[in-house]
Amino acid sequence: MLIAILRRVGLSLIIICLVAVLVFLATEVLPGDALDVFLTSDDLMTMEAEDIEALRHEYGLDKPAVERFWQWFSGVVVGDFGVTFIDKTPVSDVIWDPLLNSLLLATVITLIAIPVALAIGILTGYYRGRKADSMVSSLAIIGYSIPDFVIGTLLIMFFAVWIPIFPALILVFADASVLELLKVSLMPAVTVIIGHVAHLSRLLRVGFIEAMNCEFVERARLSGIPEKRIVFRHALPASVIPSLNSMALFIGNLLSGLIVIEKVFGYPGLGLQLLEAVDKREVHVVQAVTFLGAVLVIGMNLLADLAIIILDPRVRSHKHE
Amino acid sequence: MSNKSVLDVLTHSPGTSIGVFLVAIHLLSALFGFLFVPYGPTELAGVSLLAPGSPGFSLGTDVIGRDYLTRLVLGGRTSIFVAMLGVMIAVVSGGLIGVSAAYIGGFYDDVIMRLVDIKLSIPGILFVALCVVGFGRSIPVLTIVIAINYMPGALRIIRSQAMTQVPLDYVKSARLRGDSKLSVIVRELCPNVLEVVVVEFAIRTSSAILAVSALSFLGLGISPPTPDWGLMVYEGIQQIYFAPWLVLFPAFLISTLVIGLNFATDGLANALGLDAARGLD
Amino acid sequence: MPLAWMPLEALTEEIMDLLNVKNLSVGYYDRFKQIVPAVNDVSFQLQQGETLGIVGESGCGKSTLARALMGYCRPGSLIMDGEVRINNLNILQMNSLELLKLRGERIAMVPQNPLSSLTYHIKVGPQVDEILRIHQGMDSRSARNHTLELFSGTNLTDPELIYDRYPHEISGGQRQRVVIAGALACQPAIMILDEPTTALDTTTEMQVLQLVKELRKKRNMALVYITHDLTLTDYICEDVLVMLNGSVVEKGSVKRIFKVPQTDYAKMLISSIPRVDSENGSSSFRLLVPDREPLLSVKNLKFRYGRHGSLFATFKPKKEPFVVNNVSFDLERSETVGLVGESGSGKSTIANIICGLLSATSGDINFDRQSINKAGEKRSLDLRRRIQIIFQDPLSSLNPRHRIETILSRPLKIFFGLKGRVARDRMVELLESMELVPDHLSRFPRQLSGGQQQRIAIACAFAAKPDLILCDEVTSALDVSVQAKVLELLKAIQTKTGVACVFISHDLGVVKQVANRVIVLQKGVVAEAGFTKDVFAKPKDEYTQLLLAAASRQNDAPIPIHNLGDIQI
């Protein structure tokens, strides 16, 4: 088991390194370098060639790409993502508070979404084919078909414009206290949950139906084991274990899903920071956010796989082979 | 399965029929809508912010006086085009690479699957943001980004379907006859992953339409003044107190399009005996 | 309301039947929500201590019937009509609580596939405990002790060890014993076994059957034994029901049905069984003609799987054991050699090496005086044509997306460059030799029956006009009656064309029918080789004796207990 875990962790580390290469390639090597990206065509027209060269030298961009990558990546490993072009603040300072805020929102959403999705998935899976099931399934399709920004905007319209119980725009600073943030995170959280619980619960429903169709469920039934026990002791673990990966994917992608929500509500999170950086063409901030987003996905996948290694005896004893 | 008629699939269930109906209307309006609209999409034809029902402007005008009906009718075609073309490239190239990886296996397969892992660990919107910063914001870039974004996931699903076929005896027979790798992949394997490819195309198109409109909403996708529903919702939010219809109409249209697509896909997948309700990566 | 069961002693004096099934019909819903009957108007009685076999080919409704006997239907099916009475109580009218009490306590089931029938994430011991705790209200300690007793009662060696294993960690035979122990837990009066040995090897199957027989005698249970194999009922049952398309076509004592079958179907079933103790051997196949040079000669063949290094594999390469170890044999022209052995004996690997799907680790294979050690890709077109292989599963060997015409035309085009009219004539000729009609050319494989599919696969192999045919378990996926037909056609075309054949099968009866010589393989090593007649009449090797005894289902078969499957580690 230990070998399997180490192997899996090692693979994740390799993938993180390769993602770093890809992120660097897409922003600094293929389009030229960071300065080429940062400067607009207007800048290029008004600036002298020597000035640009001087800037290039100042930022160390005249070195070869491999060396620049190494410099960047060795900083990343210790949490140093470079500085911004405009006011030269460290990128880590710029993204730290928004990152925490986004993680807070993501945690709130996860804590509500996963149990709710699980409950809906099991109930509809158990009563599959009934009217209620097909109704919930249709609602789920509608739920995940409506874009997040539409759900968010509609919520604002109902609860801020027509019945003004919430503010239409969140006016909280990035370094606000947790309590303040929790208060304003309700509407964003509800928005994500409406759209994404629908999808997650459909996945869990399918997994549960598969588990209930297994022969061991039939054997348990024919041995006179009560239905409740069959569901919770036999079928549920068998359906949750393979679904762990979907759940991990859900959490891992939350961060990027939040970008839209943060934009709709003006929630001071990483997504808003990213959009601002894209606007200002702050390459290093975009690099950092993308890299962190990927690390989160890789990390969640790793956790799910490790959980499966620990929970599924068939995978666990893979070492025997 | 293969002898089921198209009509059977389309009328699989009431949900499917509604879905197909919605998709058909949207496609027709995206294709031929420009023939019927009263003004040009960017023409300043009236005064700012006319309410629906104003003379000459049945759905009013937007904040700078463009005809809202015109912009609504034309607001879907760009994102539909970008999404469909991008996903088409993704599914076809991903399919060919996936099937060949499944058949050839070994080192080739390993390298491809690691590349897939890398791409799949970068969340879609972040990947687009990265590319927009690196390569600028334009329709070709957006299409290619959509293609690259959806390719690895499609590749993985199609590869795993092909993997169920590779150990089968008909593939062994073809090898023993001396068929070339290309011939086995194209003649023997590809026809057997066709259903999965079709469903992948359908699922991913609806997801891509959502993605493109979300990107436009964020200012990373289609740029103004091209009419686009995602963009129009964003522009409408500023006027949400005075002119809520500016948000409601495009929101309604984009939602019905994706709802229709997903219902149709669900029916299609059911009819083909596949499962549409799984995670998109 | 607690159910008042008759005390056991009273039962024997009562005239009522233990199990009485009256006009039972079960149907399932098809695609158009119409009810299609799967079991049709079945009636029978069963008394304490009796054994009843239910026999039929796949899809005849026997498993559906078995489940209905416990008042259970799979989702999508329903009991349409009839009664199932146990001690005169109609279980089809019971509420769900009463049914829970009944199942596992009065009537228990041993399902077909022990691996998928045990919950994979729970250890096997606790899965039996669970039944005891629920039905008998035992605490966990006494349940555990009782389970251990049950395990030793089913001849599981080292019950303590097995108790803490997960289902995938024990062998197939052990799993089936665990499932049987679970079924026995509450001492049911009736035990239903649904093809309990299909997933097992011949020798393991025999051990499990012996166990079932002993347990039945010891506990005086009534037994319902569901199988597709008529000979099994001969071994284990007194009476038998023969089912066809959901209806009972014949019932009576096993002995009587074997001696004087009354319906055509029963007669056909019995005559189709390839028996190891039958009189006629393979004399109908071409007798051995002394030839100057063998067509195929295999010398000291060894094979083991190499570990293909994955890109990120952190394991050190470990040497795999030999799957085929030092196997040598010759094959004359027009001769048929049978390769016999259980799964894992390496018989299919040998076929794969000869046809070029795998490369031998060491050893020499000569075909018509040329060495064919090379893997398939490097062989010449002519060589590829001359050696053809037919696989076990016909559906898998035909591309589901191609019409039969496309499938058959490939070898004709590649090996002979035939096209158009000429090719079509040849295809029709091939189909006719397999007693198929030209109509079949436009069909897809799925639109044909299993037997027809396999006949297409045979036609496809013979389309190449080969000199050597490798038949890898070609009839194992087929029903008995279909198997007989396919074998007959295969024999006919082989006699006509004079092709040599390596016939691989786990079924000794089939091999006896077709092969002049037979090679018995055990774990990759030749256990015994010789003329079929001699080997079957006087087996010298212990393992061959074991296989033969198992195949003929002799009551006094010498099955050593120590031969139980080892715990897989």
* Content of β-strand of chain A: under 5%
Which stretches of chain A are poorly predicted, pLDDT < 50 over at least 5 residues?
none
What is the gyration radius of chain C calculated from CA atoms? Answer: 26 Å
> In sequence order, what are the helices and strands of chain A, one letter per element?
HHHHHHHHHHHHHHH
Number of helices of chain C: 22
What is the secondary structure topology, with strand pairs?
The complex is a heterotrimer of chains A (321), B (281) and C (569).
Chain A: H1 2-29, H2 34-38, H3 41-46, H4 49-58, H5 65-77, H6 91-126, H7 131-145, H8 148-162, H9 178-184, H10 186-212, H11 215-222, H12 227-265, H13 270-280, H14 283-311, H15 313-316
Chain B: H1 6-10, H2 14-32, H3 68-74, H4 77-104, H5 106-120, H6 124-135, H7 139-165, H8 169-177, H9 181-218, H10 229-237, H11 245-271
Helix pairs in contact in B: 2-11, 4-5, 4-7, 4-9, 5-7, 6-7, 7-9, 8-9, 9-10, 9-11, 10-11
Chain C: H1 8-13, E1 19-29, E2 35-46, E3 51-55, H2 62-68, E4 77-86, E5 89-90, H3 96-102, E6 107-110, H4 114-117, H5 124-136, H6 140-153, H7 159-163, H8 172-184, E7 190-194, H9 202-219, E8 222-227, H10 230-236, E9 239-244, E10 247-253, H11 254-259, H12 264-272, E11 296-303, E12 324-331, E13 336-340, H13 347-355, E14 362-367, E15 370-371, H14 381-386, E16 387-390, H15 394-397, H16 404-416, H17 420-433, H18 450-462, E17 468-472, H19 480-497, E18 500-505, H20 508-514, E19 517-522, E20 525-531, H21 532-537, H22 542-552
Helix pairs in contact in C: 5-6, 5-8, 6-8, 8-9, 9-22, 16-17, 16-18, 17-18, 18-19
